[in-house]
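User: Please predict the structure of the protein below. I'd like the answer in structure-token form so I can feed it into my own downstream comparison script.

Assistant: Understood. Taking the following sequence of 234 residues as input:
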Amino acid sequence: MKKGYYNETTIAKFADALKNAKKLVRAILESGIVPQVKFSGGNTKMGLVPSVSTMPFFTCPHVCSTTCGVSCYAAKLANLRKNVLNSYAWNTAVVMLCPEEYHAQVKAFCRGQRYFRYHVSGDIVNKDYFAHMVENALENPHCEILAFTKRFEIVNDWISANGALPENLHILFSGWNNLKPENPHGLPETTVFEHDSEFCDNWKTCGGNCFNCACRGLGCWNAKSGDIVAFKKH
């Protein structure tokens, strides 16, 4: 399949996976059993930082269809590996059908973690979802929580209504070549660059491994207002 994952074939494949996952979750709920959220223990890029993810496309804002969606690494991985797709679909079904249970499990999981990341795949689902992310950070002040998002309006609205985010909740607004985040509160941002494109002097380079940066207090985990962390497009 050619590069570019926002196409009818891939979206239909992912939609079928989500439909099947919702059917399974409903059956489990009807039997009186609590469906378990699936967490990742890390990967080559993340190192030992655990995470929770949802479906690409279906939990991402529409702007992704003309920006990161055409080369989405999460969609690429899900398209290649059925177990990854099913895991993303499962979590999304749990969010849709029993959101309170989903968030309760994420919060409980973070009680035993030093670092945690939301959404290696997917994005903030809605305002209520983000409110739970904030609650998670407040309930687990020992845990540094990282998330990249293109749901700018959800985060901006929360800050406008409630004030500053918890210090251990690191939200970075995810820019793209043709997308500049709406960022009135001055949150740190990210951008991408091509292998042969110009690298701006004020950008900070991604360190390549989330766990290494987290342990050293560098990169995205320590990004401040005005900082732009640059990722090489992959």
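That's the full token string. The chain is about 40% helix and 15% strand.
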